[in-house]
Amino acid sequence: MWAASCLASCCAACACEACKSVVGGISRRWARIAYCGLFALSLVVSWILREVAAPLLESIPWINHFSKTPSREWFETDAVLRVSLGNFLFFTILAVVMSGIKDQKDPRDKLHHGGWMAKIICWCIVVFLMFFLPNGIISFYETTSKFGSGLFLLVQVVLLLDFVHNWNDNWVKKDEQFWYMALLVVSLVCYVATFSFSGLLFHWFTPSGHDCVLNTFLIALALILVFVFAAIALHPQVNGSLLPASVISLYCTYLCYSGLSSEPRDYECNGLHNHSKAVSTGSMTLGLLTTVLSVVYSAVRAGSSTTFVSPPSSPRAGSEKPLLPVDQMDRHEDKKKEESKPVSYSYSFFHLIFSLASMYSAMLLTGWSTSVGESGKLVDVGWPSMWVRIVTGWATAALFIWSLVAPILFPEREF
């Protein structure tokens, strides 16, 4: 028994030292990816608790205070929302603490890039404390998350616009026939997928024998926007490309599908109600995948000249400075050693992306359901979540059109 106790103590000590060495070895360069890892950990914890935590939550009196015990699904949703709230508070606090950082001399810069052991412990404590909150607070957070999720979808749109424009620019800069052909092929594939997907939308959400004017209008509007994108992109004054237009067209069509599939299951124009479980699982998986890709992309792209998280003071956000005269070079080098470099991206906005992503991931894992109510009854996906996604699609179209026409309307400004 004594030997086993010593062995267990040694293993615990070794594990602790290993964790310290791992988190201590996170360099400044990899800090942003480490935040993505922490966010991914929150998704894993939420997923696990959704599957196994229901019996435990049923035994907690300040959570299960109903006269009639709610269904198991109610407790699964509640567990996900509590982890999400802890994750949201953790990153929101970091966003507030990191606001206003302009150069690396600021002591908060070290907090952003270091102290990982302390941050992981704080994250665990914050998430743990969420399970002591009353149901009313969780209910308020669930309602707020629907609006926060809409904001995150807009963030996804900006990230997607940044990605497709850089993708197009990188291939065009190669100035070779092969890459021009690649642009054309990818664009055609996106357009074929868009029109094929639109045909399926008419088949699924405008069944014969029912008056589905709303669904017909939404699908037709998405198709009209496809032609509008192409027309504007190919206009001589815009000098655009079909690649961004085709990718955004496909994304808007997907958002239209996502919104229509969120219509109430008893709505006669929702032709997927017979396959609601498979559709919900597929939508959740795809949504989580795009969420993880969005936060990873925001972390990797933070600090580039085109990303929206770069502050004006960033050395990559502005234009190149003229070279100093030769007689001032030595003095400049000495001064440069004393002064800190400006930060390359906004730390506060960077953490805000993770806060909004926490809300959106909670909605995906819970099926956009209402977790807490006096009756303890779940409300399945319905009109609020449907309109959140439809309006996001319209906002995507507006932002893309603006990105094309803004340089023409305001040629003196950089976009």
Automatic annotation (TrEMBL):
Keywords: Membrane, Signal, Transmembrane, Transmembrane helix. It is found in: Membrane. It is a multi-pass membrane protein. GO terms for cellular component: membrane. The chain crosses the membrane at residues 30-49, 79-99, 120-141, 147-167, 179-205, 217-235, 280-300, 345-366, 386-410. Residues 328-338 have a biased composition (Basic and acidic residues). Belongs to the TDE1 family. This is Serine incorporator. The lineage of its organism: Eukaryota, Viridiplantae, Streptophyta, Embryophyta, Tracheophyta.
